[in-house]
DNA sequence: CTCGTCTTGGAATTATTATTCTATTGTTTT
DNA sequence: AAAACAATAGAATAATAATTCCAAGACGAG
């Protein structure tokens, strides 16, 4: 009988066998299902102390469930802590297109276009979930409040990020807000950004490697105390430094290709929230 | 200066000081904010290996932020893991999926910014799933083949769809393909589209109400037998009529607000598939 | 160019932690 | 009641991991 490799499996195996376990092992079993966090992080000695058994008993427990040693079993408890929010989507999608399975190994999408699409859909769903998890209400509320009371909104984004800036400009204009798109068409971004006053707001979007134009422009407006809302990929980003609000959109480590889906979704949400906030004020 | 005791504090301290850090320490700082899970669970040697620095540098990093040693700092990262595993976190995730279910009923997002974001995330996930389900392998393969053998690619999209067109232009250019963005800056779209020849491909993106400029331009190039790939919302769309390939991105009836997430995801998939196809051909 | 300062690499050392082993205890069987 | 068996405690040992230390390298200032 092979040792369980996932937390769920281990948990149910413990549940199934805990009756036939000896006294000490049962105490460990009960503790394990009740305090999986401790099982994941504490040392053998620490656990032995908490449970009230000898360290060797814990080793025997691990051996009893098929593991080479405690450390091996602990990995299973640790995997629970870092478990991806929803492997369900990935699996569901993988099962639909068999080609998907192949691409899992090398980390990059395989050759078939349908497999590529499956991969992107799955990754983008993951990115959206991460956006949801990691974006605090505080930032959203603050950003909307800033935007609502601003005299004008300047959109700053170049290269890959430009579509987001453009979208925001388009949508904000349709809300009858004064929105300016810094497109670097006529002159540099820095020069255009000089239009922004302290009563305005600048929304800057940039991911690494950060567009130097955008970074420079942000530094300039921050120096003039113009409020900045940053949409970027890390709190270490040069945009984050002087920003009043910083939205962080984590990129998935295993994917070389960066998706615009999450930033777009955030942009849409901001626009609609702002719309609600303005409507509420006018009524 | 006391060392931060919570993950949030540590993270913001790292963000604040990362500029003044030395080369190696900054690399560690970047890794730390990007891979907090690894920081929580791996060993010094393992991290050193992942980051590409010496173990001693990691100790110095911990000392630099006021900790007695690495282990003490690691506790802070671990505290974050157990915080996320608390029931409330899982409830938040569950509530999001609940929001998706609810949205089918009333269709409009609530007032709070966080609720709006949840709504958008849920709806966009739904849109991506629908994209995945409704997009056939045939269309994808045909589109990629068309693009691969084209002499040039013209991107056509205005208003809300322009970000998608721009993105495609940006990404295709980076593949060293001849990509032309019909931006209507100098002259009408129709005039610019006249550049397209029968050996080119036009990718037209438009959703209702269909931008007249784009519709006209598409009709013109179709009449000249230029192959068109349409990304639109209905097979009845004016873009679909003469298109060689038509990607249909369904609108959710009950949702007043249109999201760009699904078209963006499709665009990204097309670009990457095309990239693969070109690489395969060159080898 | 040279000195002084700060940073880094890497082996040596110390510490912590897991694991093993054996004596002991308790329990059941005859 | 004694023998056999199973389970456990606890010290001893092996392993893994963290930390220290010093030499070498990089960078600036004078």
> What is the approximate shape of chain A?
elongated
Q: Biggest interface and which pair forms it?
A: A-B, 68 and 69 residues
Q: Kindly identify the CATH topology of the largest domain in chain A.
A: Rossmann fold
Give the oligomeric state of the chains in this entry, treating copies of one chain as homo and distinct chains as hetero.
homodimer
N-to-C series of helices and strands of chain A: HHHHHHHHHHEHEHEHEEH
CATH superfamily of the largest domain in chain A: Glucose-6-phosphate isomerase like protein, domain 1
Mean pLDDT over all positions of chain A? 88
Helix-residue proportion of chain A? 55-70%
- As residue ranges, the low-confidence spans of chain A are 98-109
CATH class of the largest domain in chain A: Alpha Beta
Number of domains of chain A: 3
Query: With helices defined by DSSP (H or I, 4 residues minimum), what is the helix count of chain A?
Result: 14
Taking the sheet with the most strands of chain A, its summary is: 5 strands, parallel
């Amino acid at each position: 009988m092979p040792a369980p490799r996932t937390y769920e499996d281990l948990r149910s195996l413990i549940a199934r066998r805990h009756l036939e376990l000896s006294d000490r092992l049962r105490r460990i079993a009960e503790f394990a299902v009740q305090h999986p966090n401790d099982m994941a992080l504490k040392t053998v000695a620490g656990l032995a102390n908490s449970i009230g058994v000898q360290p060797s008993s814990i080793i025997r427990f691990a051996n009893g469930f098929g593991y080479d040693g405690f450390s091996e079993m602990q990995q299973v408890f640790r995997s629970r802590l870092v478990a991806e929010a929803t492997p369900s989507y990935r699996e569901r999608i993988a099962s639909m297109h068999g080609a998907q399975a192949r691409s899992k190994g090398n980390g990059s999408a395989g050759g078939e276009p349908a497999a590529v699409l499956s991969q992107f859909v799955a990754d983008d769903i993951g990115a959206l979930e991460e956006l949801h998890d990691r974006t605090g209400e505080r930032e959203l509320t603050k950003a909307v409040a800033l935007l609502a009371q601003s005299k004008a909104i300047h959109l700053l984004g170049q290269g890959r990020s430009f579509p987001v800036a453009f979208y925001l400009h388009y949508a904000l204009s349709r809300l009858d807000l004064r929105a300016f798109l810094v497109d670097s068409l006529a002159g540099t971004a820095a020069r255009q950004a000089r239009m922004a006053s302290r009563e305005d707001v600048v929304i800057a979007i940039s991911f690494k490697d950060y567009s130097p134009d955008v970074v420079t422009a942000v530094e300039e407006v921050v120096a003039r105390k113009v409020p900045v809302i940053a949409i970027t990929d890390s709190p270490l980003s040069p945009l984050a430094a002087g920003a009043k609000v910083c939205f962080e959109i984590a990129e998935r480590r295993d994917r070389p290709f960066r998706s615009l889906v999450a930033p777009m979704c955030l942009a849409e949400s901001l626009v609609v929230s702002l719309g609600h906030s303005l409507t509420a004020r006018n009524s």
